[in-house]
Structure prediction request, 418 residues.
Amino acid sequence: MSDKSLSQWLDDVTALHDQVIEMGLDRVADVASRLLPKHFPSSTCKIVTVAGTNGKGSTVAAIEGGALKAGWKVGAYTSPHILRFNERIRVAGKDLDDASLVKAFEKVESVRQGVSLTYFEYTTLVAFAAFVEAGLDLWILEVGLGGRLDAVNIVDPDLAIITTIDIDHQDWLGDNREMIGREKAGIFRPGIPVLLGDADMPVSVFDYADKQSCEVMQWQRDYALKDGVWSGKSAEGESLELALKDLPEIPAANIATALQAVALLGIPFDSLVGNSFPVLNLMGRFQKIGASPQVVLDVAHNPHAARNLALWLKDHPVEGETIAVFSALKDKDIDGVIRALSDNFSRWYVFELDDTRACSLDQLVALCKEGAVNCSACNSEDDALKEAMDQVGDSGRVVVFGSFFTVAAILETGIISL
Prediction:
């Protein structure tokens, strides 16, 4: 095999296909047929697939935390990453090291046989190769885009989860919730249990579940989390209740859905009883850094996520003023994000991302003015963060949001550190 580094593999894979996204499963399934063991998955390995507009990463991390605390050997695959590719593939709760990733890249390349794969398709197979090598009890797979035609969907899950459905990626998934819901429901398989992590789901999701004879459990209908007490059902249909403490600062629906998943998978709750909820392996979701001033990192990049961020900010007030550091990709509903958060910040500091898909600085400023928010244009992410931190002083708060790329750009300044 080659002696290429991880960065060289990533460069090569990026250049392999002329499209960032190409929907369809034929090519990736062809390579997977040579990559995965003949009798995959084994009876000892469970697979959970998680789709949704928002909340996928936190739901994956919460399931992972519960399973790890119970002693299961777990792999989690998520995307995109913020700083390092290694963040996408975790084994036993830790980001996979470079040497193990290189070995997995080599394994995929050895069976690719010239098939042209996109970056996401190739790296999904890398995750699968790494998980097979690790001999896991549980795979938790986050869908990258949609569900039906996403590369993750080449494997059959034992449990399927849809966290939320809102308007995003319209060019690929459709321009209404019913169309998007049907695409995401493509991860369902005949007869498997399905969890819906939102009380408001499109009819198309239920219709497809009925066609697949899936047993559906829904947040606030079949399981709940109130005042620190989770209630739900076991795989056998028995009522369960669990008192929790030290819950992570993510939406209650995501925690409750993760616990219901743990129950259906047969993962024992014993390790959670009377103990703090597991610390989540999760970056950029209501993530607080420092105290003078406090800096909050959140990857909110669509109106639904922005509304969740607005609720979190109102539930977590600070003494001083709260200021936004914001940038976004041009294909997002930036106007919707601004409107969802317009009442939460005294000023917005905006900058242009260094990416071909970035919204221009002039357009960001124009959209802020249309949304009637006070806005300052900055020449760089460094300037935006420094000016915001200077203005709020020690008692205030700076909130960085708008994209995974926005959070990454701010962290890469080195002004703040994890």
In short: DSSP finds 14 helices and 17 strands in the chain. The mean pLDDT is 93.
